[in-house]
Amino acid sequence: MSGLQAITNIYASGTASVGKIRLQTDPMGARQKEPLDELFSENIAAKIIRTAQKHILDNNPPSQYPHIVPQNGQDVGQYLSKGIDFWTCGFFPGSIYSLLERAIKYPNRLRVTGVELKSLRQALESLGKTWSDPIHGESRLTNTHDLGFIMMTHMKPRWEFFHDEKALATIITAANSLYTRYNSKVGAIRCWDELVWTNAPHIRGMDENFIVIIDSLCNLDLLFYAAAHSGSSHLSDAARHHAHTLIRTHLREEPSVCRPGYSGMLYSTGHVVSFCPKTGRVKEKRTAQGFDEHSTWSRGQAWAILGYAQTYVWTNDETFLGVACGLAEYFLLRMEMAPSRVEIPMANGTTSGRYVPMWDFDAPIGTDGSLLRDTSAGTAAANGMLILSQALTRLGRCDMGKRYLKAALTIVEDTISHSLSSERAKLVIKENGDIGGIDELEGSTFEAVLKNATVSNNALGYAQIADHGLVYADYYLIEFGTQLLRLGLA
User: Fold this and answer.
1) N or C end of the chain: smaller count of CB under 10 Å?
2) How many Å apart are CA 127 and CA 379, to the nearest integer?
3) Number of Cβ within a 10 Å radius of residue 362
């Protein structure tokens, strides 16, 4: 029985909080590794700790944060950074805190050798605080919608694990900063002040344009969380209105397609909508990072799955649950419909890659066999489907809960099989007694856990940033493993 089958089979009894990943053994009793083992491997902890220690040198306190790892070129294998005011700054400290949660709550599931758990825990706690502390100051930003991404990944665990009152205060401050971008006429939060991503005619002028992107759905969690802790219902009201508005403006019904076992509507997504801020009228629709305005950018679809799943959990509004399911079904359908050449032969006679999504579901696949994927889309979508599986099981819809759990695990297993960096790392005790990370094979370095992520490949974009390691692809992979532990599934 595979690890995936072992987990999904527990849903037959209608309970979602029992069962473990079961590891296969060969006839001689030796343990055979499965892809899901990698979620809890020493390799991940070693890479995160090594990056945290290396990139703090001459950057303490941090003002530059890990972003992408090129797969070729001058900086191959090394993290390139973005400033603290960039929207991805929270993901790296988020990865540290996700691993710290494992060290605190699930020490028996850590697969590390040669180091003491206490030392590992202390290293993660110290590094987490070092990388998280400077981000407190970003909570007052009012020129971005990305404050959920920036804050929740690490400030939330600081509050929940260490009762860090400053972290909670920062979350609430950030939520109120985000609320300043809400427009009741539009019923949404302004995302970008201007659209300047591409060489196409820009959308400029905040008095005449109000830009909202599909990614924004994942920042609503910040508003709901802050509202619950502060009693400020206007924050959660704005989040709910925003989510309803985007159903109308960013989601596209797909009535001509269906999937066995699912009777609801399927939805694809657009990326960018510009509204009139005075009337709320939709002025135009575009894409900034996808193939074109009519295509389905895979990470945009993933953001929508995750964002609507989170919104359902906060509101219990089944409108959001149905939309999240329809989005998930379309995401799965498009991966299943991809041509056979997305499947790459493996040494063991199987294939991988079917469930590692293309960067845009409608972009042409190169006739030369080149396949441009986005592992961050897959890992983000898998986290959303894991939330859906739990929500549906709590409602007694156990078959559907099992369906999305199996889908999430399939995506993650295939992502690991296809895109896990072969350049591995291991933990060591350094001369000063601290824990560090080194290459498992000397001179073979790739600082990210996963490869094959794509930030953007729009032909009109100022830069095509494709096929590399990416900090949020790794974060959502790590968080997926931690969520399995929280649910008692690993």
Assistant:
1) N
2) 24
3) 15
Q: How far is CA 489 from CA 129, 311, 485, in A?
A: 29, 23, 6
Integer Cα distance of 372 and 296 in angstroms: 15
- Sign for the CA dihedral angle at 317, 319, 322, 328 comes to negative
Contact 451, 424 (CB under 8 A): no
Compute the chain's Rg from CA coordinates.
22
Confidence of residue 463 (pLDDT cuts 50, 70, 90): confident
Take residue 240 and report the two structure tokens written for it: 């709910």
What is the CATH number assigned to the segment(s) 35-385+414-486?
A: 1.50.10.10
The residue type at 430: K
For tokens 């959920």, name the residue: 148
> Strand, coil or helix: what is 372?
coil
- Enter the tokens of residue 487: 């649910």
Residue 277 one-letter amino acid: P
State how far the Cα of 177 lies from the Cα of 161, in Å rounded to an integer: 25
When pLDDT is averaged across residues 253-268 and rounded to a whole number, the result is: 93
Angstrom distance (rounded) from CA 153 to CA 249: 28
List the one residue out of 188, 418, 149, 417 whose CA is nearest residue 299.
149
The DSSP-derived string for 98-150 is HHHHHHHH-GGG-B--SS-HHHHHHHHHHHHHHHHGGGGGGGG--S-STHHHH
Residue 250: pLDDT over 70: yes
CA–CA gap between residue 468 and residue 76 (Å, rounded) = 9
Q: Are 61 and 134 in contact (CB under 8 A)?
A: yes
